[in-house]
Amino acid sequence: MDKSVLVFHSFEEAERADEAYYASLTPQERVDLLLDLVASYRESMGEAAAGFERVCRVVELERC
To answer: pLDDT tens digits, residue range 4-43?
Structure first.
């Protein structure tokens, strides 16, 4: 990851730079960024990063 510091003269200028940065990412880079954020959140909450638990339930419907 390339770390850099940028200085902006206004909040609007910083917002435009953020929007331009995220717009320049490929879809795969966006997904990778999201997965990194989810993993960081789960670790901070003390949850295992094993993945999502699969849940399945069969419910019988009544016939009218």
So the answer is: 899 999 999 999 999 999 999 999 999 999 999 988 888 8
Which residue range(s) make up the domain with 41?
Answer: 1-64
CA 60 to chain centre: 36
| DSSP assignment letter at 9 | S
pTM across the whole model: 0.56
Given a contact cutoff of 8 angstroms between Cβ atoms, the answer to whether 23 and 30 are in contact is no
**CA dist list (Å): 1 to 6, 43, 44:** 15, 20, 21
Q: Coil, strand, or helix at residue 46? A: coil
Q: Are 25 and 33 in contact (CB under 8 A)?
A: yes
Please count the structural domains in the chain.
1
